[in-house]
Every structure is written in structure tokens, then in C-alpha cells.
Write a structure and sequence with these properties.
This protein has 15 helices and 2 strands. By secondary structure, it is mainly α.
């Protein structure tokens, strides 16, 4: 099956559509358990029978990893559901009650509410309670939701410049936590660098990087909110560092700034990094200072 043939079928509409539900089945099962639609494995199998996945698996079982001659597809789906539910149970996202009934836990409800992948949720559940701000930021930027972000060769120079401090500039010309080695080598390094560039109001001269950074911040906000609540649910009075850092990180994603950034006016509409930096250099580093500033001075700083 050649690439040319694949795109010819897409153009003409002659190719058969296939389901992708099996790739994210565990997330969908958890969401349905949280909603109360599914309360047992038997109900989960019945629910799967109403999906496009079941229809296509009957016609093209090999595409979904099933044998070509499968005598009983329902048994295979039952095994698949039991395996996925057991993973959710072991992770503490659902509980199996008496007579095999299923119920969601508060952690499972968080996963469904914030649309977090099972891989990312598993990573969040590994937080011990004494993680630093940098460690939690790294955790967020390495989540499965960013697996489609790729590092392009044309972007390496711009990203490496952001990752490397320039001589003679003490005002923060690079990211707060540079990638070790000074080189951006993969997609996760790229995400880690872009998030910090946005928080630090650093210029992104590449329009493609700027658009990608906005998308990363939107997804990161959702993930950081989930992480904050996960740490709060699982935290104890003896491990408050991770809880504090998770709250700060969530606020950073919500504002698009570091927690101690002087560029607070960046949160206002139509104020970009350039204007925010100009106002910060004029000692307008809070909303109170902006309110008390002379309008003529603001016009002069903004050159408007």
C-alpha cells in the first residue's frame, strides 16, 4: 500500500474510513465510568458494540490487531475492556466494587474533567510531594499531549538562542531554566524552552514558533490545573512543597507569566511582549502603578 495510493484514496474518497477509538479506549472508558454510562465490564462491551470501532473491527480485524479469522469478536472486546479497566483500577482511577460494578474515584473524575491522557495521569500520580518548581514544569512539558510537537531543523537556531544567555545582558535574555548542554535536541526540549520564553516575555521572531507556543500554553494550562488538583488530593501536611509549586505553576500558565514577572501588563488585551517590556522598563510593574501613571507618560512609553 503505497503513499501515493493512500493520498489518491483520500482525494477521491474511495478509501475506507477506520476508527481510532482503540488508540484512546482507556480514556473513553474512564470518561463513561465517570458519567455513569458504564458501571461494569459487561456494560462496557455493550457500549463498544454501538461504536464505529465494532463495525470496522468486523470488516477489517487486522487493522485493529485482531486475527483475520476471529470466531467471536465479543470475547476479544471483553478481554480488551477487562485489561483497560484493570489498568484504571491499579492506577486508582476507578474502583471495582461488589459483584464487579465499577465506580470512578476523585482522581478518575479529574482525568475526565481535564481530558488528560492515561499516560500523563500516570505520570502525575508519581509525584512524591517534594518536587521543585522546575521538576513540575518538566513533568508538564513531557506529557503525552505534546507528543505531536516536533523539532524542525529551521527552528534550532532560534531556540538555542533563547536557551543561551548572552554576554553582558543581565536582564534575562534567555529562559530561566536552560536545557542542559545548551542545545535543543528534541520536541520536549523545544516545549520546555517555548513555555519559558512565553513566561519571560522573550521575543519569538519565528511566526510558526509563536503560534505553536500559544497552543502549548493552552494545553499546558489544562494539564497544570489537573496536576494542581492531583497533588492537592494526594498531598499530606508533611509534603507541601509540591502543592505550593503546583499552584504557582498553574497560575503561571493562566497568566502566561512567571510568578514574579515585572511584565504584569502582559495580561491585558492588545499588550504584547514589546509593550510589556517597555512599560516594565519604565517601572510600571503592577496594575496599581499602571493605574497611577500619567496617561501622557504611558503614551510616550508606548509611542502612541
Amino acid at each position: 500500500f503505497s503513499v501515493q495510493r493512500k493520498y489518491e484514496q483520500l482525494v477521491t474518497g474511495s478509501g475506507a474510513l477506520e476508527s481510532h477509538l482503540h488508540q484512546n479506549l482507556i480514556e473513553h472508558l474512564n470518561a463513561e465510568i465517570v458519567l455513569g454510562t458504564i458501571d461494569s465490564v459487561d456494560v462496557a462491551v455493550t457500549w463498544l458494540q454501538s461504536t464505529f470501532l465494532y463495525v470496522r473491527a468486523q470488516n477489517n480485524p487486522r487493522h485493529y490487531g485482531f486475527p483475520a479469522q476471529l470466531p467471536n469478536l465479543l470475547n476479544k472486546f471483553s478481554e480488551l475492556c477487562r485489561h483497560e479497566v484493570s489498568l484504571l483500577d491499579r492506577a486508582g482511577l476507578v474502583v471495582t466494587e461488589e459483584r464487579g460494578s465499577l465506580a470512578a474515584t476523585p482522581l478518575g473524575a479529574l482525568m475526565a474533567r481535564y481530558c488528560v491522557s492515561f499516560r500523563s495521569m500516570n505520570t502525575m500520580l508519581q509525584v512524591s510531594g517534594d518536587e521543585s518548581f522546575k521538576e513540575l514544569l518538566t513533568l508538564i512539558t513531557e506529557c503525552h499531549e505534546f507528543s505531536d510537537v516536533k523539532l524542525r531543523t529551521s527552528e534550532k537556531r532560534s531556540l538555542n538562542d533563547l536557551n543561551k544567555k548572552k554576554k553582558g545582558d543581565e536582564r534575562g535574555s534567555c529562559v530561566r531554566f536552560p536545557v542542559p548542554g545548551g542545545k535543543i535536541k528534541n520536541g520536549f526540549n523545544k516545549i520546555f524552552c517555548l513555555v519559558q520564553a512565553v513566561f519571560g516575555c522573550l521575543p519569538l521572531n519565528d511566526p510558526g514558533l509563536s503560534q505553536e507556543a500559544n497552543k502549548i500554553i493552552r494545553v499546558g494550562l489544562r494539564l497544570s490545573k489537573c496536576l494542581r488538583e492531583v497533588v492537592s488530593l494526594r498531598g499530606s501536611t508533611g509534603h507541601l512543597e509540591a502543592q505550593l509549586n503546583a499552584v504557582l505553576l498553574s497560575k503561571c500558565f493562566a497568566c502566561g507569566l512567571w510568578e514574579n514577572s515585572p511584565h504584569v501588563v502582559r495580561q491585558l488585551d492588545r499588550i504584547g511582549p514589546t509593550l510589556a517590556t517597555a512599560l516594565a522598563n519604565s517601572r510600571i510593574t503592577s496594575f496599581t502603578a499602571l493605574e497611577n501613571a500619567n496617561p501622557r507618560d504611558i503614551e510616550m512609553v508606548c509611542r502612541r
